[in-house]
Amino acid sequence: MRTLLIHNPIAARSGGGTVRAVAAELDKAVDVTVAGTRAPGHATELVVDALAEGCELVVVLGGDGTANEALQALAGTEVPIAPLPSGSTNVWARRLGFGTHARSAASELVLRIERHSYRRVALGMAGARWFACNAGFGLDAAVVRRVDRRPRRKRVLGQAAFLSTALAMLLRGYGNPRIEVKTEDTVTADRLETVVCTTNDPFTYLGRLPVRLAPGAVPDLGMNLLGLTNVGVTTLARVLWSGVAGDVRRLSSTRLWHNLAQATLSSDEPLPLQVDGDAIGDTTSVDLRSIPDAVTVPAPPQVRP
């Protein structure tokens, strides 16, 4: 099986030794070609070229952002993608049961390849951009954009970089955007100040702790939205605490939608948008859709985050 192993050299845990170890493990089952990314968007180019040359499997050793780039070329094809943990969070790799260590994840992937254990999974779309895990419109996207401007800090601090950046932004004053959510059958006139969308539960991780912003969500049954009617340090702390230890549905500042096929988020002013942890620009409106059976992954029939 012709396999492309893409690695992101600046990912938090993607040193040369790790790449060689993962490639050596994969070489037990497949014919591996290794390629490193050099710039944003390069992973997509690498996959497009590999598909043209008959690639049969793409393995991504990097963060969710690198996997997301590969998805842009793989979604809708029959070629499987396997995200292995190497970045600061790796939500998708953990959702697919690969754990948090690259070498053991590579061993698990080899077993799945040998057992021909594959399945199709749903993806989300934000406009024309595919996403595997989440999208955000407002505060979280603004935080992602600021963190991305300081990649070394992100590599060193991991999730702490996002939390400290969010705190700093809120203390300086985030503003009061107004976001409207339109779903298939409802429109909310609430003055939502930020909205996040997740295709699975949990939304992210704080170290080993899962942050569940869509309690009760079932993977592959649609998108889940969480909107906040106000954004501040206290609200953020309550949401994170409830996401880890309780239930965000108890909070008066939250609005939740489950298992949506589509939704439109709009604002009176341009707001930042992120998908799978990558900031992709500002917009006043974004159409979100859930696309079933969008891509193939090496995974057992039942996978729990």
Fill in the keyword field for this structure.
10-stranded antiparallel beta sheet; alpha+beta; 9 helices; 31% helix; 16 strands; 305 residues; 4-stranded parallel beta sheet
Care to describe what's here?
The chain is an alpha+beta fold. Helices cover 31% and strands 36% of the residues. Helix 1 runs parallel beside helix 5 and helix 6 (139-148) crosses helix 8. The two termini are 28 Å apart.
Estimated radius of gyration: 19 Å
Structural class: alpha+beta
* N-to-C CA distance: 28 Å
Residue share in helix: 25-40%
Morphology: globular
Number of strands: 16
The helix/strand order is EHEHEHEHHEEEHHHEEEEEEHEEE
Number of contiguous helices: 9
The largest pleated sheet is described as: 10 strands, antiparallel
Overall mean confidence score, pLDDT: 89
Strand content: 35-45%
> Which residues sit in consecutive blocks of at least 5 with pLDDT less than 50?
none
What's the layout of helices and strands?
Elements: E1 2-7, H1 16-26, E2 31-36, H2 42-52, E3 57-62, H3 64-74, E4 81-85, H4 91-95, H5 102-114, E5 118-126, E6 129-131, E7 134-137, H6 139-148, H7 151-157, H8 159-172, E8 179-183, E9 187-192, E10 194-198, E11 204-206, E12 209-211, E13 223-228, H9 233-245, E14 254-260, E15 262-275, E16 278-298
Parallel strand pairs: 1-2, 1-3, 3-4
Antiparallel strand pairs: 5-6, 5-16, 7-10, 7-15, 8-9, 8-15, 10-13, 11-12, 13-14, 15-16
